[in-house]
Amino acid sequence: MATTKGAERRSSVGKRQRRRLRERQRTQNVPQSQHWDYPTTHDPLLRVFLKSGADPAQAGIIGEYWKFTTDGTWACRVADLGQPRSVTETVAAFSEAALLKVPCRQCGEPLAATSRAQATQLAGHDLQGSKWHSISHTPLCAACQAAAAAEERERQQRQAEQERRRRENLRRKIDDLLARENELTLDTRDPLHSPVDIIVLAAMHRMATALNRHEGGHGVPVPSLEDLTHGWTGSADRDLETIKSLYTRRWLAIHHNTPHDAFFERDGELMLTVDQVRWRLPFGKVSAVDAINAELQSCLGIADEIGIAARKEFTEFVQDMEVWAVRDYLDDLLTRVYGYPATPRERAAELVDIIRAGLTEYTRKQMNALAWRAADSAASWKERTPRVGPPEAASAAVTILRRKLEDARERRRPVPEYDPPKSLTDPSALHPADLIRQRLQELQAWEASPREKQAIECPECDEYGWIEEGGKPRTCDHPLVKPTIMI
After folding, report:
1. Which residues contact 251 (CB under 8 A, 6 or more apart)?
2. Least CB-packed of 113, 135, 215, 439 within 10 Å?
3. 169 pLDDT more than 80
């Protein structure tokens, strides 16, 4: 109800303002007593008002200038009245013509003109106003234009004030959130059931430790996704999903150096753009390494159905990162070294399948060597064949990689290992994932043969866990030392 009354009050103020402007214009500039009607019939088209200050000669020029005949033409030429520029200046200074057939669409008053050109522009050459389909299409008079401009300025000022208050309110909400996040410590937190979440968390801790050591202090933020070349996992979707999971379970907190542009409001609720947020690992007095290792042990270190599923997910995750790393290496060769386009989109899925199959038999660095050979062979083929262009050579690199991989399998030839260039960084989670994979392989070997000497390092028994006592073999009683998974 209050809103409706406010709108009615603003509307009433606007009408009064327009009415005052019209009355002021009429009383000050256009005396109603001194005017002529043209044509001089019972249905005139023009009413010319003579302003104060005009002498008789000027009044005569004005009267002849505006004279409009019943034939629909001006009675005389401007040049016949004197020097054209002087005539138009006199007419504009001391007269105003009301176009009686063209009312203002807002107030209904006739539109005004100070020259013939303006009159014909508003009312047409016959001054009948036939160019307008209806009164709703006619322009506004000067008074209504001034009032509308004033109302528009007021509206823009109100809108600017509302926007300023909205920004201040948003900034206050952001500051409050950052203050709360800065005080957060991981005294209680939800467990992490996904190995992907744990590996990314380990990678964040590793990067934060390196950054703090480099900066010579503490509190350096973990970079946002926008600041990382290949993200954490090599997949933008998986990165977002993982970070949301870690933040929801309170393993991550928003760093106070996060730019305010990373936040926005939706329906009055403060939202954040995940890939722009800088993060903090709020471990407090809790050892970050101990906390992460405990999660790793509970996720990957148990040989039950849940642990087996987690190990499978971890293995697939690491392989995905390796596939993306080899794919990026091949694209880097094509674009940076040879100046070709990257792998065509229509062959991207095929390339991923080829690399994934190759990683079941060869290491990632060996796959890099095969990718280099494929790119080099594609470039050589292009140089030998003039009709082949860069896009065809980039596509051929996929086919050549598949053939070289098949040839390496068939001939059983050794494949060297190539390191990617320093300019091409791996996904940030790949290095800690490699370390954890080694620990997992040790654990799986122990689970397969827990009594083997190399697994238990017992100096008394043989490699099968047997010891002779009284000339008879028996199982050694040494304690079993189970390998643990840790970063």
Report:
1. 186, 189, 192, 197, 201, 281
2. 215
3. yes
For residue 237, which phi and psi values (nearest 5 degrees)? -65, -45
Question: Which has more confidence, 408 or 462?
Answer: 408
**What would the two tokens of residue 424 be?**
């091409």
Q: What is the DSSP letter of 466?
A: E
Residue type (1 letter), 219:
G
Q: Where are the alpha helices (DSSP H) in 105-141?
A: 116-123
Q: pTM of the full predicted structure?
A: 0.69
pLDDT tens, position by position, 86-111: 999 999 999 999 999 999 988 889 99
- Residue 344 burial by Cβ neighbours in a 10 Å radius (0-12, 13-18, 19+): middle
Tokens of 371: 């990718």
What pLDDT shows up at residue 183? 85
Reduced to 3 states (helix: H, G, I; strand: E, B; else coil), residue 97 is strand
CA distances from 448 to 130, 452, 454, 476 (A): 98, 9, 13, 17
Contact between residue 345 and residue 391 where contact means Cβ atoms under 8 Å apart? no
Alpha-carbon distances, residue 318 vs 204, 324, 428, 432, 480 (angstroms): 16, 10, 12, 10, 29
Residue 297 predicted with pLDDT over 60: yes
Q: Compute the distance between CA of residue 233 and CA of residue 318 in angstroms, rounded to an integer.
A: 9
Q: Which of 319, 323, 240, 314 is nearest to 277 (CA)?
A: 240
Distances (CA, A) of 237 to 34, 120, 151: 79, 64, 48
Q: Over the stretch 354-363, which tens digit does the pLDDT of each residue have?
A: 999 999 999 9
Residue 478 DSSP one-character state: P
The identity of residue 465, as a single letter, is G
C-alpha to C-alpha distance for 329 and 424, rounded to whole angstroms: 7
State residue 277 phi and psi, 5-degree precision: -80, 140
With a CB cutoff of 8 Å and minimum separation 6, the contacts of 478 are 456, 458, 460, 461
Q: Which 8-state DSSP code applies to residue 143?
A: H
Distance CA 340, CA 334 (A): 5
CA-to-CA distance for 393 and 60, rounded, in angstroms?
87
Range 187-205 average pLDDT: 90
At residue 483's C-alpha, the angle toward residues 482 and 487, to 5°, is 150
Distance CA 409, CA 231 (A): 33
DSSP one-letter string for 330-397: HHHIIIIIS----S-GGGHHHHHHHHHHHTTTS-HHHHHHHHHHHHHHHHHHHHH-TT--HHHHHHHH
